[in-house]
Structure formats: C-alpha cells, structure tokens
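Re: Re: ligand-bound prediction request (bumping)

Still looking for help on this. To restate: I need the protein modeled with NAP bound, output as structure tokens. Inputs repeated here so nobody has to scroll up.
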Amino acid sequence: MSYLPENDRYDNKTNYRRCGNSGLRLPEISLGLWHNFGGVDVLENGRDMLRYAFDNGITHFDLANNYGPPPGSAEENFGVIFGKDFLPYRDELIISTKAGYLMWPGPYGEWGSRKYLLSSLDQSLNRMGLKYVDIFYSHRPDPETPLEETMMALDQAVRSGRALYAGISNYPAELTKKASAILKQLGTPCLIHQPKYSMFERWVEDGLLNVAEDEGIGIIAFSPLAQGLLTNRYLDGIPDGSRAAKSWGFLKKDQVAPAIAKVKQLNEIAIERGQSLAQMAIAWLLKDKRVTSVLIGSSSVAQLKDNLASRNNLSFSETELKKIEEILK
Ligand SMILES: NC(=O)c1ccc[n+]([C@@H]2O[C@H](COP(=O)([O-])OP(=O)(O)OC[C@H]3O[C@@H](n4cnc5c(N)ncnc54)[C@H](OP(=O)(O)O)[C@@H]3O)[C@@H](O)[C@H]2O)c1
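Reply:
Sorry for the wait, this slipped through. Here it is.
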C-alpha cells in the first residue's frame, strides 16, 4: 500500500523548538532507531512507527552507522522504508547519523579520525539511499585523535554536501566548549549535542547544559526513558519481548530490579498528574528550555502514541518537582 501522510500532520500535533542559535527547529519529541529497526526486528513494525510518527508531526529520525543488530542494518532498513514511503517528503525530514563506535575491522573502523568519519558517512549514505543527511555527529570523543582533526572532518562533511549540520554526542562539558570553538572557527558551528539525559542520568546538569546554552548549541536528550525503566514496562517483572528480555538489548536484566522501587514511586506521581510514567519522564526533560528535543525509542505504535501524548501535560508544580527530587536522591 502506498503511503500518503496525514494532511493535518502540522496542525498543532507537536511543538517545535529552535535548536540552539540555529535556524533549524526540531520536534519536541524525535524518534531514534537504535533498537527495534535492525535486521533482527520486524521491518513492517518499524515502518508503521515511522509512518505514525510522521503523521503526527515528528520530523526527526535519528540513526547511527552501528545501529542494528547487525550493525548497519537499521540504516539499511530505514533506507528501504524511506525509498517506499518518504522519498517525496525528503525536504520535510531531519535525518541524522553518527560515526564513532566500532563499525568495521582494522585501524580505521571506529573513533574519530578523518579517515573513519568520512568513510563511514559515505557508507551510511549508501545504506540509506540518501544524497545527504541533515545532521552528522561525532558519536563519541576520541582520546587519541586531535580534536581539530575530528572537527575538521565534520566541517568537511558539511562543506562537501554530505551533511547539512554538524553535531557531537557524549562529549563532556569542557570538550564541548573546545569543539564548539574549533567548529566556529571553521565556519560550521556545532548545531547540536546528543547526551544521555533522563531522571536517572543527570550528568548534563553539571555543566554541559550551561555550555550548550552559552555556545548556542541545542540539546537532544537520548534514552529519556532510561531504555524503558522509566515507564510501566517493568512494574511487574521483565516481560517477554521487552528490551531487558532480549539477548541483544542494551538494557540488562540485572539493571531492572535495583531501579524498581523508585520507578514505582515515580509512577504514583505520574498517576496523580493523570499521565503515564513515560509521559511524565518526557515532560520532566522538556521543562528545561535548553533541551531542544527528547529522543525516544519505541517498540510499537502504541508506545509511540503514549509518548507523543506527553504534550498534554508539560508543566510541573513546585510540589511535584520536590517530590520527584526526593525520590531520585
Ligand atoms: N548518542 C548515543 O550514544 C546514543 C545512545 C543510545 C541511544 N541514542 C539515541 O536515542 C534513541 C532512544 O534511545 P532509547 O531507545 O534507549 O530510548 P528510551 O526512550 O529511553 O527507551 C526506549 C524503550 O523504552 C520502552 N518504551 C518506550 N516507550 C514506552 C512506553 N510508552 N511504555 C512502555 N515502554 C516504553 C521500549 O522498550 P521495549 O523494547 O522493552 O518495548 C523502548 O524501546 C536511540 O534510538 C538513539 O537514536 C543515542
């Protein structure tokens, strides 16, 4: 069946925020393809989620060279779906990819050299069948490659037309400042930083959020639901088919039990707010205007629907915030 997106997809179904000081606006919720879009997954399920997202104004899909498993298969699957459904809408989409983690054997298959980053980007474009990506990220800092070399590769990616904007991910605050200075000098300002940020993972509050604001860089928070812990998924144990139950899932079984006492208390607050816990976890991140977008994962359209409805209640009372802080202590 050929896909015709909903005509009302931009009719107040989602909010858009300016990404740092750039001209680009991103949806408050973006969809990531780290899990559930690989060769081990059901392609039609991923396709349904991408269609549902786009129908609801979600214009940003996030990938990386290594997403799968196997590595590369999420980009391949995205390419198939893009070719079938989204080709006519390319100019309405912000598609990102990254390079930094292990992708192929030998000395040029990971980290931050110019050799690796630009080769990887070419491979990603081939897998996805795209002429360019909107955002190309250095996925992680490389302790051995000079920062200048990594940033020059990002600049080159943009200048050569393979990417429209440059981003960095998992860079600590001080290194972000340095990377931003180099990129500004090169004439390709850093658009966006992608850090892990959720109620359970708050390192960005110790400096990175301020640096991003000072430098005019947007923040897109990944794993905002702590890979599913900050939802009702594990309230009664580890269900079959959940990320923690899958051998290839990055959430490990032994990470679930220690979190559950807090999850249950947070869930009570969410219920009082008339929200699901997932919705509250997303709203909690969006209360900070320095956060441009919250980058969720989903394994079904039902989850996506639940998550997108977080916009129905984005504000918190002082009492709610205090209660949440007490639980998170
Ligand atoms: N830059 C980086 O280094 C980096 C690292 C990791 C991720 N990311 C990006 O961030 C994206 C999101 O990461 P993530 O998948 O870990 O995000 P997440 O939103 O924290 O977790 C997503 C998982 O939570 C569960 N879930 C989602 N909504 C739910 C709901 N309403 N009710 C119950 N369970 C729900 C699902 O797990 P089940 O599968 O169990 O249903 C889903 O797969 C990735 O796709 C990727 O684009 C970037």
